[in-house]
Specification:
Elements (H helix, E strand, L loop, with lengths): L1 H5 L52 E6 L8 H15 L4 E6 L6 H7 L5 E5 L3 H7 L8 H6 L9 H10 L6 E6 L2 E6 H6 L11 H11 L1 E3 L2 E3 L3 E2 L1 H6 L20 H11 L22 E5 H10 L5 E3 L11 E2 L4 E6 L6 H11 L2 H9 L9 H6 L19 E2 L17 H8 L6 H25 L8
Parallel strand pairs: 1-2, 1-3, 8-9, 11-13
Antiparallel strand pairs: 3-12, 4-12, 5-9, 5-10, 6-7
């Protein structure tokens, strides 16, 4: 049953499972369906992987550590493999997926290291790639092959640089967009205008108050937007880690503004935060969730009459949506065919391949007008859903951070989930408590690195 479903053209139904989830410091936040594929990996030791890739010259080892859809080999072949085979017919392509029992530890134990790894960028560049000693800066290969990085979405490229300590351990490949969807039936029922592209958060707040209502025995929630995702990938690009020092940075005026902006939505009587995933049950006017989840809803609830809008904007960033929720392509330090691996990655990032993948509703770093117009053409469930609105705004660009500083995974989910929703703390106090906890994690990570210990525990 599962294999049959995966083989359909509804490629997006399991896109990028979990790159949005698992914010560290405990379980994934309530209301988050996605979890990182390798979020619970048990590992042995970090540092350089002793093994070296010794596969024959004509064999390219491609390891997908992310996107659960690639568990099914036919999907890897359809969405990645076929393009490589077409362009490089003399290559024998070997593919292994992380969740089939072959994890990083297993690869190292077997003495086999991939040439190319598909991995989550923001967090797992450090937590997995660097941790296992596989990081490799592609900057020289980019120059050698005159690869034009300017054609790629610059927010996604900066995401790769930020996670690579200023280098380029990865190039962006897949982005699981955070999207706004609205229930047209509820809006029509009450004669309310639909959300529109460019709507500000102040306007969205007024809309949320209007659409949160009791109608007989039915309670309609007006607005659900996961506060942890909203903070982690915030549209003002406000960093949770200080750009210049080894410390957290959550007690700024901008962070207070970001939190208070969303907090008021959940102070609306009847609109308390529960889960964005309740949208397909038909009693929620607006939800902001991942494109993967929305496509899954459209398949499971074929009578759900919804359309895509665009996330609200801040007046000071009127064209910005969330920062990228990105999976990237890495070449491993141990690969014995780095040039070939880079040529393969270059081709996968070409307009030819990106256009073809966009038709299967896979969003990537090359979203020019041609690619956007073709988006989701092969996905019946998304026809007539205003999918062009997904790309009406530009991803916010992450702020650069001084190389050499310590990365810990920002525990922003605790601001709302623990200190606001559970403990009713005021906003500055909630932010201060998480900042203090993160600073302790940074200090511990520095000490563990110096002592050769498990420095990745807060990644």
């Amino acid at each position: 049953m599962m294999k049959k479903w995966f083989a359909t053209t509804t490629a997006l139904a399991l896109i990028l499972v979990g790159t949005a989830g698992c914010f560290g410091g405990g379980a994934a936040p309530t209301g988050t369906d996605a979890t990182e594929n390798n979020g619970d990996a048990e590992t042995t030791e970090g540092g350089d992987a002793a093994a070296v890739n010794t596969t024959p010259d004509n064999v390219l080892f491609f390891y997908t550590a992310q996107n659960k859809i690639y568990e099914e080999e036919e999907n890897f072949e359809r969405l990645i493999g076929q393009y490589i085979r077409k362009k490089f017919p003399d290559i024998e392509l070997k593919h292994v997926h992380w969740n089939d029992g072959t994890r990083y530890e297993d690869l190292i134990a077997k003495g086999t290291i991939p040439d190319i790894v598909l991995e989550q960028v923001r967090r797992n560049t450090t937590r997995m790639i660097v941790r296992f000693g596989m990081e490799y800066d592609m900057s020289d290969l980019i120059k050698k092959y005159n690869f034009d990085t300017s054609v790629l979405d610059q927010a996604m490229l900066e995401n790769s640089k930020l996670a690579s300590d200023g280098k380029l351990y990865s190039l962006p490949f897949e982005n699981d967009e955070f999207v706004l969807v609205y229930n047209k039936d509820i809006f029509d029922k009450y004669g309310q205008d639909y959300p529109y592209v460019g709507m500000t958060y102040d306007e969205a707040y007024e809309l949320a108050k209007t659409m949160t209502r009791q109608d007989g025995d039915v309670t309609y929630k007006g607005w659900q937007q996961h506060p942890s995702h909203y903070m982690m990938y915030n549209q003002l690009s406000e960093p949770a880690l200080d750009p210049n020092e080894d410390k957290a940075s959550l007690t700024t005026d901008t962070w207070v503004k970001i939190v208070d902006n969303m907090r008021r939505f959940y102070d609306i009587p009847g609109n308390q935060f529960t889960s964005t995933s309740e949208f397909p049950r038909g009693r929620m006017a607006v939800s902001v969730d991942t494109l993967e989840n929305v496509t899954k809803w459209s398949r499971e609830y074929p009578d759900l009459n919804f359309a895509f809008g665009a996330v609200p904007v801040f007046p000071e960033a009127p064209n910005s949506k969330y920062m990228p929720n990105l999976n990237g392509l890495f070449i491993t330090k141990q690969s014995n065919k780095k040039d070939l691996a880079f040529q393969v990655i270059s081709y996968l990032l070409s307009e030819e391949v990106q256009l073809a993948r966009a038709k299967d509703a896979l969003a990537g770093p090359l979203m020019n007008e041609t690619v956007v117009q073709a988006f989701a053409q092969n996905v019946p469930e998304l026809q007539g859903k205003d999918v062009h609105n997904i790309f009406a705004l530009k991803p916010a660009v992450p702020k650069a951070r001084k190389p050499g500083l310590t990365f810990v995974n920002p525990n922003v989910w605790g601001v709302f989930q623990t200190h606001i929703f559970e403990e009713s703390k005021d906003t500055p106090t909630a932010l201060r408590l998480i900042e203090e906890a993160m600073n302790k994690q940074i200090e511990e990570t520095v000490q563990l690195k110096a002592a050769g210990g498990d420095w990745w525990k807060h990644q």
